């Protein structure tokens, strides 16, 4: 049980730390409103579930062990993060109260793609999950417990970020929202450069 609590603490710190998925949730809330941001968060969570599942397969181990395969995933992630940064740089924050129709399916798919474009997520699950799984007990129930817990924590943390961004919406009216978008876009660009340098 103490290992499970340690996993929860490590997962919470990982999810709370600023990164691409946190930026995506915050900017979705700022630019598209509460409903679309929650749909984007669902995409991010499904992406985490997919990456965790991939890490449990031999394909995940192959990607992590093969420098060529890992580089392909990494370069794909660089391109995707850079594209998100450019898109966000050009986005005008929707702060006036009227919410324009948003392609919610796109936000959901962007969330999934963002998780798969980040090879660090795959490495996290490949390196962390085995540390908390008892080899003498059945693998699948333990795997499901850890991954489900991670996903539920992600929903709670990102939900908190989204609600905080929505409450700060009035404060961010005008140029404040514009600068948040610009700073977030630059952060995506910086994350792309860090990923590129490996």
TrEMBL record:
Indicate the transmembrane segments per the record: 39-65, 72-92, 112-132, 144-164, 179-196
One cellular component (GO) term of this entry: plasma membrane
**Topological category with respect to the lipid bilayer:** Multi-pass membrane protein
Query: Per UniProt, what is one GO molecular function of this protein?
Result: amino acid transmembrane transporter activity
InterPro entries attached to this UniProt entry: LeuE-type
**PANTHER family attached here?**
ARGININE EXPORTER PROTEIN ARGO, ARGININE EXPORTER PROTEIN ARGO-RELATED
The organism's superkingdom is given as: Bacteria
- Name of the protein this chain belongs to: Lysine transporter LysE
Q: Does the keyword Iron-sulfur apply?
A: no
Q: Which UniProt keywords apply?
A: Cell membrane, Membrane, Transmembrane, Transmembrane helix
Pfam families the record matches? LysE
Location in the cell: Cell membrane
């Amino acid at each position: 049980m103490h290992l499970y609590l340690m996993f929860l603490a490590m997962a919470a710190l990982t999810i709370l730390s600023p990164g691409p998925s946190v930026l995506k949730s915050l900017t979705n809330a700022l630019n598209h409103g509460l409903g679309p941001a929650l749909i984007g968060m669902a995409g991010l969570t499904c992406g985490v579930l997919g990456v965790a599942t991939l890490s449990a397969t031999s394909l995940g181990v192959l990607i992590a062990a093969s420098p060529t395969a890992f580089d392909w995933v990494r370069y794909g992630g660089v391109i995707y993060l850079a594209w998100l940064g450019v898109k966000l740089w050009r986005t005008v924050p929707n702060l006036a109260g009227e919410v324009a129709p948003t392609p919610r399916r796109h936000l959901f798919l962007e969330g999934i793609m963002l998780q798969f474009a980040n090879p660090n997520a795959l490495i996290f699950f490949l390196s962390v999950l085995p540390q908390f799984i008892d080899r003498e007990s059945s693998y699948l129930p333990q795997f499901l417990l850890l991954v489900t817990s991670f996903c539920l924590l992600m929903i709670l943390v990102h939900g908190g970020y989204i609600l905080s961004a929505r409450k700060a919406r009035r404060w961010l009216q005008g140029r404040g929202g514009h600068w948040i978008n610009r700073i977030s876009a630059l952060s995506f660009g910086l994350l792309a450069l860090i990923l590129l340098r490996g």
